[in-house]
């Protein structure tokens, strides 16, 4: 089970990530591109994957990781119920979403040293 504070810390540990409001959520961005958002009250994150990544992650825990049910879901945006997921899996999903956005932005995909 992950809390909002831990998710935020994990997202911000990736290189060049900034945090900004996004409607009723907090977004995590590289440049102007959002790769994740977090709705704190519901502990639901939304991440951007490739279609293949979305299929794989949704198959791992379909009740906790599932596509957004609209146009955005068909383009890789996927919900994660953080209270049902462990830190390792969330780390993997954040890495995938970050890499997807930085690839298209031409950024370096290597994590910051700890």
Quick overview:
By secondary structure, this protein is an alpha+beta fold.
Major β-sheet profile: 6 strands, antiparallel
- Beta-strand content bin: 25-35%
Percent of residues in helices:
25-40%
SSE run: HEEEEHEEH
Terminal residue distance: 22 Å
Task: Give a written overview of the molecule.
With 114 residues, the protein is an alpha+beta fold. It is 33% helix and 28% strand. The protein has three helices and six strands; from the N terminus they run αββββαββα. The chain has helices at 4-12, 51-60, 87-105; strands at residues 17-22, 25-30, 33-39, 44-48, 65-67, 77-81. The protein has a six-stranded antiparallel sheet with strand order 1-2-3-4-6-5. Mean pLDDT is 91; it is low at 106-114.
């Amino acid at each position: 089970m992950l809390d909002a504070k831990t998710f935020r810390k994990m997202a911000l540990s990736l290189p060049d990530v900034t945090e900004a409001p996004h409607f009723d959520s907090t977004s995590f961005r590289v440049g102007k591109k959002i790769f994740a958002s977090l709705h704190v009250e519901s502990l639901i994150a939304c991440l951007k994957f490739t279609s293949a990544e979305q299929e794989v992650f949704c198959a791992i825990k379909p009740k906790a990781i599932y596509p957004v049910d609209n146009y955005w879901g068909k383009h890789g945006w996927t919900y994660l119920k953080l209270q049902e997921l462990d830190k390792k899996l969330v780390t993997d999903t954040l890495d995938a979403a970050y890499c997807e956005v930085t690839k298209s932005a031409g950024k370096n995909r290597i994590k910051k040293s700890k």
